[in-house]
Design the sequence.
């Protein structure tokens, strides 16, 4: 089973994907936008993968193009089944796929699944203020700015703000319907 989009699908991640994840997360161009900042080993990623299998509060999917190329991961962590909320994260690790709409499509595909199948009510995320591409992409998907953690990120010798964005179920479904009519 996969979660279908138009130009991509979301699928379960497999143990055999781990070397690809390690390559992405050791690429400084990708990593500058993520929380991690120390070189990652295969063993660390294997441990994360095993923990993930048992974790009911997180769900990570591989983003695959229709020809079967794994280009990134997208998912939810900190799922709270009582308040029906979760924290969102995405990485397109294959950089040649940046800026071509894959991020927007992977996010809207996951949001539809989260609200219509998982019955979540609210999804939030954190993004560094210098990640303008991600911010623009999140706005296109219906996320709204909710807060700013001033100077919360130290990167390359400077402090940067970290923004909190969120989207509610009804808001997203309206936004999605309008986007599909355009
Ligand atoms: C962030 C990410 C998921 C976005 O996916 P993507 O496929 O590259 O994004 P999309 O093409 O769907 O949308 C990007 C939008 O940002 C715009 N954009 C690109 N660079 C920009 C910049 N420097 N400033 C403002 N907007 C920018 C694009 O023009 C596009 O908007 P448009 O469709 O209105 O023209 C992807 O680039 C990625 O994984 N980056 C590395 C890891 C990362 O940043 N993860 C998120 C951590 S919070």
Sequence:
């Amino acid at each position: 089973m996969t979660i279908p989009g138009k130009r991509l699908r979301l699928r379960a991640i497999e143990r055999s994907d781990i070397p690809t994840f390690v390559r992405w997360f050791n690429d400084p161009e990708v990593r500058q936008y993520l929380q991690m900042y120390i070189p990652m080993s295969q063993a660390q990623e294997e441990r994360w993968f095993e923990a993930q299998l048992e974790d009911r509060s997180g769900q990570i999917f591989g983003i695959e193009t229709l020809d079967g190329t794994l280009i990134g991961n997208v998912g939810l962590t900190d799922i709270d089944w009582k308040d029906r909320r979760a924290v969102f994260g995405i990485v397109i690790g294959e950089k040649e796929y940046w800026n071509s709409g894959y991020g927007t499509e992977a996010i809207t595909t996951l949001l539809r699944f989260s609200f219509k199948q998982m019955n979540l009510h609210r999804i939030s995320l954190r993004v560094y203020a210098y990640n303008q591409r991600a911010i623009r992409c999140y706005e296109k998907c219906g996320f709204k700015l909710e807060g700013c953690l001033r100077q919360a990120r130290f990167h390359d010798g400077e402090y940067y703000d970290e923004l909190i964005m969120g989207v509610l179920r009804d808001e997203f479904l309206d936004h999605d319907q309008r986007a599909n009519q355009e």
Remarks:
- The chain has a mean pLDDT of 97.
- The longest strand covers residues 144-155.
- The beta strands are 3-4, 8-12, 59-65, 70-80, 85-92, 122-128, 144-155, 158-168.
- The CA atoms of residues 26 and 121 lie 34 Å apart.
